[in-house]
TrEMBL record:
Top-level division of the source organism's lineage: Bacteria
Residue span, NAD(P)-binding domain: 8-189
SUPFAM superfamilies per the UniProt record, alphabetical: NAD(P)-binding Rossmann-fold domains
Name this protein carries in UniProt: SDR family NAD(P)-dependent oxidoreductase
InterPro entries in the cross-refs: NAD(P)-bd_dom, NAD(P)-bd_dom_sf
Amino acid sequence: MKKVFVVGGSGRIATDLIKDLVATGNEVTAGARHPEKVIKLNHVTAVELNLHDSVDKIAESMKGMDAVYFVAGSRGKDLLQTDAMGAVKTMQAAEKDGIKRYIMLSSLYALQPEMWAKIPSLASIMDYNIAKFFADNYLISNTSLNYTILQPASLTEEPGTGKIQIGEGSATTNPIPDVAQTLADILQHNNTIGHVIMMRSGNTPIEEALDKI
């Protein structure tokens, strides 16, 4: 059992992620601006978290955790303070608290700007990818965290298949339940530490795909 902090704990992916983390025996603290919107389950504690706050205040919320997930997103409304600097603050807070494991939800090709204009779904979220570019680069280059960065393709509200493809490919979407399950399973796979993982819909069971990294 691990004590896990989920940043952005009331969102679409967070809701499925929390269910998956609890199902595998973890204790989850979900931080959200509106904690009343966090899914109500045993072994889940909702706390108020505002990414505009100081690193010290964010660190107080995270104290005692074993791992941090960043799955927050402003949906284009607050890219600098949430998606970019908000993410950086949670990294700094994790280091301040001595938390080593940090799992980031990012975006396909976020670290490869030359790809953004080539794929229509990425071109339409250019500013979001810019925010993720800086957040991901900070995580890799400016922290000593045991990070994993997951970069899914476009999210769809379809039933999960339990199967994915990692790396290059032609698929351009991922059902939200598959992204959440992959995030949850990453915590059990130390071989993913230090990796940036691009994922798409595919034919390989999630566990098998992660085992091969």
